[in-house]
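Hey all, sorry for the wall of text incoming. These are the six entities for the joint prediction.
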Amino acid sequence: MPKIVDKKEKRSRILETAIKVFAQKGVNNTKIADIAQAAGIGKGTVYEYYHSKEEIISDSFRHFMESMSGVIGRRLLHLRDPVDKLLAYFAAWGEIVDSEAMSYIEVVLDFWAEGLRQEKTAMTINLAEMYAEYRATVKSLLDECVSAGRIRPVDTQITASILLGTMDGLLVQWIADRDVFDIKLAIELLPKIFIAGMEGHG
Amino acid sequence: MPKIVDKKEKRSRILETAIKVFAQKGVNNTKIADIAQAAGIGKGTVYEYYHSKEEIISDSFRHFMESMSGVIGRRLLHLRDPVDKLLAYFAAWGEIVDSEAMSYIEVVLDFWAEGLRQEKTAMTINLAEMYAEYRATVKSLLDECVSAGRIRPVDTQITASILLGTMDGLLVQWIADRDVFDIKLAIELLPKIFIAGMEGHG
Amino acid sequence: MPKIVDKKEKRSRILETAIKVFAQKGVNNTKIADIAQAAGIGKGTVYEYYHSKEEIISDSFRHFMESMSGVIGRRLLHLRDPVDKLLAYFAAWGEIVDSEAMSYIEVVLDFWAEGLRQEKTAMTINLAEMYAEYRATVKSLLDECVSAGRIRPVDTQITASILLGTMDGLLVQWIADRDVFDIKLAIELLPKIFIAGMEGHG
Amino acid sequence: MPKIVDKKEKRSRILETAIKVFAQKGVNNTKIADIAQAAGIGKGTVYEYYHSKEEIISDSFRHFMESMSGVIGRRLLHLRDPVDKLLAYFAAWGEIVDSEAMSYIEVVLDFWAEGLRQEKTAMTINLAEMYAEYRATVKSLLDECVSAGRIRPVDTQITASILLGTMDGLLVQWIADRDVFDIKLAIELLPKIFIAGMEGHG
DNA sequence: GATGAATGAGGGTTCATTCAT
DNA sequence: GATGAATGAACCCTCATTCAT
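and here's what came out:
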C-alpha cells in the first residue's frame, strides 16, 4: 500500500508557494530550491509535480489570470444594467486589490515582461491572448452601454483597451509606491471620469 | 583632453547598444558578451566603461527616461494655455510612439519588473521616483487647469496617476499585440474622454 | 515454502526484464524506473529483490554468460572427435546468433566497457574471469586436437584467444551494421580458414 | 593586446587530457570537472573550447581513429607486394599496441558501447562507418592478394570482417587481462594462421 | 510484500567578472 | 586603453535509493 497523495492538491500547493516566492524575489531570481524550501519539501519533489521551472512559471500565470477572472465574473453575474456592470467591473479591481491574490500581483509584471518577448506560438505566457480575452469582455460591456444609449457611440474596441490599460498602469504605479495615492479612492474616481467623459450625445 | 570626451562618447555608444540589445532579447536574457559584440568591442572593454551589468541596466533606464522627458518637455515649452498643455502632453506620447526611442520601449517592462523589486534605497532602477517625477509634472498641469477653471476641481494627484497609468497600460497592451488597435487613434481619443469627463462645474 | 520459490522466480523476471531494457537503452541510460515499468512492478519493489542497480548489472552479466555457456556446452556434450568439437564450438556461435539470448547481445558491449574498468577484486563484472573460463575451454579443445595430431602444435593458449577474439569482434561488427555481411556465412567460413591454417605438419 | 592563445593547440590539449581521463574512469564516469582538473584549467574553460561533453566524446573518438589510420597508413605506404601489405597491416597493430595512443584504447570500448546505440543518422560516433572504412581497406588488400593469385578466392568482404574482428576481439581480451598472453606474439601468430588458411588452390 | 512519493547528492552548462598581455 | 581567455559560483534537472503507508 503506497503512500497516497492527492497529486493535484500538492501541485496546487507548490504552485501557490511558487507564486509567493516569485512575488518576493522575482521570477528570474527565484531558484527551484527557493520554492522547494518555502514549500517545505525537497528540491527533487518539485520535479515530481512539475517538469520544469518554465512550466511552473506559465502555470502561475494561468492561475493568477483565472483568479482574476473569477473575481470579476462573480461581480458581474447578477447585474443587468450595462452601466452597473461597467461600474462593477471597475469595482472588482478594488476588491482584487484587497484580496489575497493581490499580494502576488508583483509577479504579473514579470509575466508581462516575459510575455512580451514570447513568440506568438509559444504556449507559455500569452500576453496578447490574455489582453484579447479581457478586452473582449470590456468591449461587450461597452457595446451594451452604447446600444442602451447610456454612453456615446465611442470606438468600443479602443475604449476597452483604454479602460484596461488604465487599471493596469494605475496598479503598477501604486505598487511602485503605495503611499502616493489611495488605490481604492483612485478606483472609485475612475468611472466618474470615464463614464462622465463618455456620456452625452457624442 | 580628448580622452575624456572619447570616454563619455564611448560610454554612450555602449549604452545605446545595450538598450537595443535589451529590447531585442530582454534584460535578463542579454549577456554582456551580446552587448560587446553588438557594439563591436571586446567583452572586457565594456568593463572599462561600466563596472557591472547592473550599472548598464540602471543607466539604460535613466537614459530612456531622459529621452522621454526631453520629448515631452519640448512639446510643452512654448504653450501657455493649461488645457493646451495637457493636450500636448497626450500628443507627446503619440510622437514618442513614432520616435526612434520607441523602438526600445519593450525594455520598459523589464525595467518595471526589475524596478518593482528594488529596495527603495537601491540606486539601480527607481520606479517610484520616476513616477513621482512624471506625476508631479502632470499634477501641476492639472492644477493649472483647475485654477483656470477649465476643469472640475478633481483630486489632481490621483487624476495625474490615472492619466499616466492609462498611457503606460495602453502602451503595454499595444506592444503585446500591435494589430488589435491603432495606438495613434487611441492616443487621440484619450483626451476627448478625459477632458470631457473632467469638464463641467464639478 | 512457496514464498521462497516466488522470490527466486520474481528475481529472475526482474533480471530478464532488466537485460531487455539494457539492450534497448544501454546500461548507463537505463533507469531503475525503466526496469520497474517494463516489469510491470513498482520502483520500490525492484529493491525488494535487488540491493542496487549495480547488483542487477552484475547479475545480468552472469546470467548472460551462463546462457552462452549452456548453449555451447550442450553442443559439445556428445561429441568425441576433437576437431568436431572445435567445429561445434564455432557452430554454437551460429546458434546463439539466432537464439533468444542473442537479442540481448547488445548489452555485452556495455558489459565489456564496464568490465574493463573494474578492479580485479570487484564483484560486479569480471571480464578477465569470463575470458579465462572461455579460453580454458577452447584451449583444452585445441590441446586435444594437437594431441591427436589433427593440427600443428600451435601455442594453444594464444590460439584460443585468437579464436575467441575473432568471434567477439565479428559479432560487434555485425551488430554495428547487420547488412554488411551475413553472420551465419561468416561463422561457417571461420573454421575453414582457421582449421586449414592450423593443419599440416607445422 | 589580448592574451594570444593557440585555440587549436589548446583544444588538442584538452582533448588529449580528456582521452586520458576517459581511459582511467570511463566515459560515463568522467565529469567535466575531472577533465578540467586533469588539464590544470577551470571547469568553465573547457566550455571555451568544447560546446558540450558530447562533443568532447565524439572528438575523442575521431582523434583516436585518426591516430590508428595514421599508423596503419604509414606502414603500408611503401609496400608493393599484396601479401606484404597484408602482413604490414597486422604488424601495424603490433606497433599500435606499443604506441602512446594504445594507452588510451580502453576508451574505445566505451565508444563502441555508445556507438552501437546511436541512430545511424547521429553525427557523434558512427561505429558502422568506422568499420566500413577499415573493412574497405582490408578488403582491397585481400582483393589484391586474390588477383595476384597469392591466396584462394575467398569472400574478401567477409574475410576482411573476420580479420578486423579478430584484432578487435583479441585486443579486448588482452586489455581485460594483460598477463594471460603476449599480445605481440599473438599478433605475430595471426598472419601465420590466416595466410596459411587462405593459401592454396582453394 | 508492494508501492511510489520524497529526497538530495551530483553533473552539465552558463555567464558576469577578472586580469594578464 | 583594449582585449578575450580564464574562471567558478550558481542553477536546472536527474535518478538511485529510502521509507512511510
